[in-house]
Amino acid sequence: MSTETGDLIQEAEDHMRKAIDHLEQELTKIRAGKANPQMLEGIVVDYYGSPTPISQVGNIAVMDARTLTVTPWEKNMLQPIERAIMQANIGINPQNDGIVIRLFLPPLTEERRKEYVKRANGEGEHSKVAIRNIRRDAIEKVKKMQKDGLSEDAAKDTETEVQELTDRFISLVDKHLAAKEKEIMSI
After folding, report:
1. Do both 21 and 41 map to the same domain?
2. For residue range 78-88, what is the model confidence (pLDDT) as tens digits?
3. Does 169 lie in the same domain as 115?
4. DSSP state of 109
5. pLDDT tens digits for 95-119?
6. Does residue 126 share a domain with residue 159?
7. How would you label 54-86 residue by residue, b for 16+ Cβ within 10 Å and e otherwise?
8. What is the distance of C-alpha 174 from the center of its chain?
9. Residue-number span of the structural domain to which 93 is assigned
């Protein structure tokens, strides 16, 4: 295998790994009935005029399996944090007691669980599409390299390797989705 095709496969693998990392991040945001501080990732608070992640204006802790608390480092940040959580529309109403914000997660209904599974499957489908696009781009590069002098056998071998890589990452997406579905559906 030439260094060009090796680099091409390595680049495709790196991009596919990033697609899996993105899927993992998105799946942690989908609630599975248990309190998880990562549910609040992506929520930004107006901190003196600049949008700041909630984790940088207060401490996020898990009280028990169904309760999260946000303790702001500055008392005057209680209202902006509460407002940001409500605007994020994550299905939880914050309760402010003047010192700490409590987020009580209601138990999931069967219907809500199925909705979350659908959302997880949608994220999985996005990842699969991204991985297939990476495969398509890699194969187009192989065809271009073949026009520039790469032997037909080397091109076929590289295409086969890219396809095997794609299959491996698609099955990884399926494993992540199966695990998340099991987590969501377990009571």
Report:
1. no
2. 888 888 888 88
3. yes
4. P
5. 888 889 898 887 778 888 888 889 8
6. yes
7. beebbebeeeeeeebbbebeeeebbebbbebbe
8. 14
9. 37-104
